[in-house]
Input
Amino acid sequence: LETFIWPAFIEEDHLRVFAFTLLMGAMVEVIRRSGGMHGIVTLLTPIAQNRRGGQLITWMLGLIIFFDDYANTLLLGTTMRPLCDRLKISREKLAYIVDSTAAPVAGLAIVSTWIAGEIDYINTGFSGLTFSGPTPHGFEVFIATIPYRFYVLWSLLLVPLIALTNRDFGPMLAAERRALKIDNIPDSSGENSPGIVPASTTPQRWTDAIIPVVITVGVILWLLMVTGQAALNEDPGTPNTWVNLFGAGNAYIALLYGSLAGLLTALILVVVGRSLTLAEAQQAAMDGARLMLPALAILLLAWSLSKVTSEEYLSTGLIVGEVMKQLLLPQWMPTLVFVLAGIISFCTGTSWGTMGILMPLVIQTTHQLLAGETCVVSADHPILIASIGSVLAGAIFGDHCSPISDTTILSSQASGCAHIAHVRTQLPYAFVAAIIAITCGTIPIGFGFSILSTMLLGPVVLLTTLYLIGRKVE
Output
């Protein structure tokens, strides 16, 4: 308690991460309870006139609601269920789309309830390591890993490809064909998710959701530029480019005050617009913050575990790195990390916990492997960046496959789908995206292929695979 947990709790940047996460949870719940998210859905759903359009609109809404995976899951499942029933889209397909746009989108977004934790896991891993150049900030590395998160990117791409080609495979194909034969699927919207759908008297204005998010993003970007410029002014030798400007910015301060500005904006909008009373808005904010407490507990324990495995105590990264030098070439590290993260996430049901356990260990081990080859390691080495991206992507892969994952359970519950039916129909799609992520992503990157070549190869193989193993639903 005194050596590991308490120091991790009172560290200044960690407190900012706690505050940001609580504020984001509060803002999301205020927006949800005011009907703002439902306003977005209501605005876009009339565009869907057939099965293809229904699937694409659900996917697009999943991309738009990027700031929290729970909000994404619960909102899309409950609000899109009647539309999907009318268009004869199976509940299994709805649950799959909802699950595929929850954690992947929140994990990629630069404004979400995930980003502060992801950045801090990266910073923790880089702590104490030496590089040929300056040690980058976690936010800069986070942005750099986005193209290397092959599973996340291609699982997101697989959804619209399936919709556009009208092809499915495995148990999902049977579920879709079965849905086409049912004339009337009983609507059970909200029966499994009480309190998710706002009252009929709530105005449900889409502006109540869009404006706070725009304010949040705007303030974060502005503060990144302000703090980045201040840092560059102290180091005249660094070129004043956009990359250096944002990389030098203080992401913790930017995220904290951006989320505060967003929450205050949301409160003002819903109270002045009479979507909620002041007391209702305050209660919504408190409930939203309370929902973030389990995530904060995972963060705190992950930080503590990172210190336990640091060079000061167990030196786990150094020991594993020395062992891996004898057993593994650095080229295989991104692939091994992706598989390992997937297994841990599947067994534990938590992508957050997996990231917290693996991120510091993977960064230290990869640094050891690369240093063994070159003696000088660059912080932007493709294998290092790909290994970090593999932690983030593999954790989400395992989360998608795990029947005990919170987002998997919520996706099936909110979509009105039997839980095991959702797991069974989603598994083949997750494995296809994962296999292509390995064969066209992590392995080529490890052996020196450019990121551009993998970005071109992956979608082509994904589409080809869909045509080879998929069958027309209608």
Summary: Residues 419-446 form the longest helix (28 residues). The longest strand covers residues 167-168.
